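Q: I'm writing up a methods section and want to include an example of the input and output format. Could you take the sequence below and give the corresponding predicted C-alpha cells, formatted cleanly so I can copy it straight into the document?
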Amino acid sequence: MSKNSIIQKIEQEQLKSDVPEFSPGDTVVVQVRIKEGDRERLQAFEGVVIGKRNRGLNSAFTVRKMSHGVGVERTFQTHSHQLESISVKRRGDVRQAKLYYLRDLTGRAARITEKLGKKGEKNEKVESPLAESATIAEQVEAAVQEEVVTAAEAPAEETSAVVEDAPVAEASPAEETPAADAAVEEKAEKAEKAEKKED
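A: Here is the clean output for your methods example:
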C-alpha cells in the first residue's frame, strides 16, 4: 500500500539520524525519558536485543533482560522522542533475526557469545615490553655462546687474537641473566687454558 507523498515527507522529517547501528544479539543500553510530575529523569534499560523491526518511522526493537530472576522484555519505538540515547555495549554473534528462544533459557544457557571483530579486520598482536627485553636477553646469550664455540674451535695460535677482536655484546643490568654470566666465565677459563698451552 503506497503512502501519500505528503505523509512520507512528514515522516521523513521525524526520523532520528543519531540511531547507532545494532542488530539482534547485541547488548544495548537504552536511556528512556521518564516524567514524574514536573520533573523529568532518565532511566537506563540494559539488555539483549531479541528482535528488530525496520519500517521507517514505525521501526521498533525489543530488548530483554533478567531482573531478579524474572525475564523482562520491553519494546521501544526506534524514532520515539522518549528515547534519549541508544548505546551498544557489546556485539553478539548470532545467526537468527529473532531470538525468541532465549525466553525458555536461563543462566549460562541464555548467554550469547561476543563478536570480537569484523571479517575484514585483522587482530594485531600487541607485544609487551617484557617480551622485548626477554628476546634481547636471549640474543645476548646466543652471541656469547657463539663466541665460546669459535674460541674453542680456533687453533692455539689464533685463540688469543680471536678473544681480543671478538665484539662483546653489551647488555644493561636489567638484561643480564645468570646463563650469560656463566657463559662469560667459561669463555675466560678457556682463554686462560689456551694461553697456558702456548707457554
